[in-house]
Amino acid sequence: MRRSRDRLLELEWGRVRHWLSLDARGMALWFGIPLVLVAAGVHLLDASATPRSVFAIGAVFSVLSALLFGAGQAMMLWENPFRIWWLSMPLPREKLLETKAAAGLRLLAAVSLAIWLTCLASSLVRQGLGKLGPEAFAWGTFSLDSLAYLLLYAALLPIFYGIGWSMLGMYTGRRLWLLLPMILAFALLVAVLSAIGEFSLELDRWLQADRVALYALAAALPAKPSYRVLLRFAARHGLRDLAVYRSGSLGNKTQTAAEKREQRVAAPPGFASLYALESSRYRYFLGMKPVRVIASILFLGYAVLSGAMSLRHEDLIGIFQLTLMPTVLVPCIVILTLNQLEANKKRLSWWLCFPYSRSKLLLARMAAVWAVAAKLLAGALLAYALGVAAVRLMLGKTEFRGWDDMTTMIYLLALYLGIGVALGFIMLGQAAAYRSRALNWVFVPLSSLGYFLPMIVTQWIYPEQAYESGLAPVHWLRLALLAVVLVPLAICGFRLGTRWVHLYLLNTQEDLARRRQSRVVGK
């Protein structure tokens, strides 16, 4: 039995080991992104960003990577064409899942170590260039900080990876409500990341080596039992549901009379029909009762937070800017991964056979993604306005300054939405990287720059000092210059996408596994 598990571990490790290969794509991933991050840190971080705060930001990214990777593996397992073959192996299903998770944990250990090394290199480069003063960098303190955070990275990794995998057991029945604490945990991590990004001296005291070592010890003690309990939950409930699942059955539900009448109505021809098809995938998800409840709770919490922040003008504009950040990042991530996921599910070839041009197909897909983003953004902005208005009614004062703040918010809205839409069109061209591996050095670092967008905006486009002074002609000039740069890049990315989107069909999970197997046999 032990020998069978070892062989199965090698099989599972072979499915993810290709991410560590140092081909053109791997070089861009493991060296290109860290170089971009180190360079961005040199230009965007000031002396208030101490090495320990950079390590703390890296810890949050490491945790988010584990959480999202585990959740992604759990979600992709539902549509894996080999899932029945995998479930029929002569081993307990809990052992099957543990082996698959063990292979993923190996990969995440490499990712977490790469994040730690990037934070280490960023601090050393900034110190070498004289960006850090003696009060922010001392070799003894820096060595202790780096070792303490390395322990923290290792302690948190299995816990959040297990939390991500637990989503496998949250797809049906009352267990759908367990998604609520999952999403709240994700929102808390994003809030912690934002708080650390303020680089305040008060917070920096909580990031010192002695306290981080205690955090690591507190996380290490329950790490192993928590990891096992979460995997056992996923195996007990998720694999049982997976055994009877058929592709597309999660979306089946009892239709109401209104929905049946709507189906009998002929869909409008042309682009409208493509848009209706693309938006249907999001309509079902957003219509689920647990999702509606979770969204309502998040919007209510955001209204309370906005009201509390409205008592200081700087925080009032800052929380508005925080609202716009997910509107840029999340649609780009969806656009970046959707075509590949559709190819893995054997649906992209069917989609490309529609009697419409590829430009219409991609535009409809983009429009559906951004329509959902616009609806969620409208809900968040409404919660923001209600929170500020409620504080105004209860306390009789806020720091909202009428038309001046309205013009600032309109400017920020145009800035973030414009950058987000442009990045979405640019990311469509990623398919061309399958044609020319050299383009990996363009698209992989470019996709990582999206996470630095808030810093880029506050450093170069609309600094925090402008919160008090208000908009000036130079800010509109910067927006125009940004449009001059991004619009041609967006057009170029869109054209590359229309020309090479079919290459996703030749780079599915099955194709990559077949190539890896052929290379092994060839050796």
UniProtKB/TrEMBL annotation:
It comes from the Bacteria. The lineage of its organism: Bacteria, Bacillati, Bacillota, Bacilli, Bacillales. Keywords: Membrane, Transmembrane, Transmembrane helix. This is Uncharacterized protein. The keyword Transit peptide does not apply. The chain crosses the membrane at residues 27-45, 57-78, 103-126, 146-164, 176-197, 212-230, 291-311, 317-341, 362-389, 409-429, 441-462, 474-496. It comes from Cohnella fermenti.
